[in-house]
Write a structure and sequence with these properties.
Alpha-Beta Plaits; Multidrug efflux transporter AcrB TolC docking domain, DN and DC subdomains; Multidrug efflux transporter AcrB transmembrane fold; 57% helix; 3 domains; five-stranded antiparallel β-sheet; 12 helices; elongated; 392 residues; 18% strand; 11 strands
Length: 392
């Protein structure tokens, strides 16, 4: 909002050469956007309705009474705006003392016209004899962007993401809004940032995934192991998307930041799970306990069970750190909630699915790799029934 100047999630910037036409276009857009689903409020700036008091000096009168324009301006400035004549010191506090006319002597045009202007000696003339005072309208503030005058339309939306709202609203404006020659409208606010970040994420996200895959391959030295670890990404994506849906959050820059942070946590937990399974497998292999599919499964379950405590500790500490953010209400909490939301939902499903699915996939991979190296594969050993014969 600070970088674009728009204080709402979505806004429009109207650029042109005349503030009056910009105001008329803004008022028309304000009426049209109220028809779009998801619009909470629309407010177009009144760029040409500022109220001002114009004082136009009669230079012939000033010359007749030998009064300089600067002298008259100084009297008006001191009488209406006031002048700081001193400073009151109260300990560490400082208060300026401003002197000007009481409100009754400057509250309307007639009162302003009676302000006395010294004309030399003891003679004083009312301001109305030396200047013409009138009310006028004009721009309260002039904005200039890219060399053109600019007016803002603030749009607050509810129940929709910015991208889909802008797509529908933009089509409506194309069909029903007729812009004069030399005037243009552009969407801004959070939508502008989202579009900018989307272009950047098209490069950042693939690069991040490639770097994660490269680091995992260097660490594991095996492409199957790398792919098994990367399965944590869809595991966590399930919880992240569902939690965003239940919380009512739309995709935004903050949500993407949370999703990227979640990728790192997933890769870390996946590596640890794979490490425990490898340790359990190697131990069983050294002890000769891999003679059958049942023994392989027993070794894998043993390794997964060892991982249960550290996995739960990771899950618990992450939740303890993120849950307070989800209940926060202070300044900046809206952004922080959207960063934390995908991490909370993703770490929950990752915790469950890694403990349930990882061991099964690891078993399938090890069984096939063992079968390829041997002619017969694992011996399918099933316990034989035991018959107890009681003697007479």
């Amino acid at each position: 909002m600070l970088t674009t100047g728009i204080r709402t999630p979505v806004g429009l910037k109207i650029a042109g050469s005349d503030v009056q036409h910009i105001q008329e276009i803004g008022a028309e857009i304000e009426l049209l956007l109220n028809e779009v689903k998801g619009t909470r409020t629309v407010l177009a700036e009144r760029t040409a309705v500022g109220h001002f008091i114009d004082l136009e000096w009669n230079r012939e009168q000033l010359a007749r009474y030998d009064i300089a324009v600067e002298t008259g301006q100084k009297v008006v400035e001191n009488a209406i705006g006031g002048d700081n004549v001193s400073t009151v010191v109260l300990g560490p506090e400082r208060y300026r003392v401003n002197v000007r006319y009481l409100r009754d002597f400057r509250s309307d045009l007639a009162a302003l016209g009676r302000i006395p202007i010294t004309a030399g000696g003891q003679r004083q003339l009312p301001l109305s004899d030396l200047a013409h005072i009138r009310m006028s309208n004009g721009p309260a503030m002039i904005r200039n962007e890219n060399g053109l005058l600019t007016g803002y339309v603030y749009v607050d939306i509810v129940g929709r993401d910015a991208e889909s709202y802008v797509s529908e609203a933009n089509q409506l404006l194309r069909d029903r809004l007729k812009l004069p020659s030399g005037y243009s409208i552009t969407w801004s606010g959070q939508y502008e940032i989202i579009e900018r970040v989307k272009e950047r994420l098209k490069f950042v996200v693939p690069l991040t995934l490639v770097l994660i895959c490269l680091l995992l391959y260097i660490n594991t030295g095996s492409m199957p192991k790398t792919m098994i670890v990367l399965l944590a990404v869809p595991f966590s994506a399930v919880g992240a998307i569902w939690f965003l849906y239940l919380a009512g959050y739309n995709l935004s820059v903050a949500v993407w930041v949370g999703l990227i942070a979640l990728l790192g946590i997933d890769a870390e937990t996946g590596v640890f799970m794979l490490l425990y399974l490898d340790l359990a497998y190697e131990e069983a292999k050294r002890e000769g306990r891999l003679r059958s599919l049942g023994e392989l499964r027993e070794a894998i379950v043993h390794g997964a069970a060892k991982r249960l405590r550290p996995k739960f500790m990771t899950f618990a500490t992450t939740c303890i750190g993120l849950f307070p953010i989800m209940w926060s209400t202070g300044a900046g909490s809206d952004v922080m909630k959207r960063i934390a939301a995908p991490m909370v939902g993703g770490i929950f499903t990752s915790f469950v699915l890694e403990l349930l699915v990882y061991p099964a996939i690891y078993e399938v991979w090890k069984y096939r790799s063992f079968a390829e190296k041997s002619d017969v594969g694992f011996e399918l050993v099933t316990p034989s029934p035991v018959l107890n014969l009681a003697s007479d």
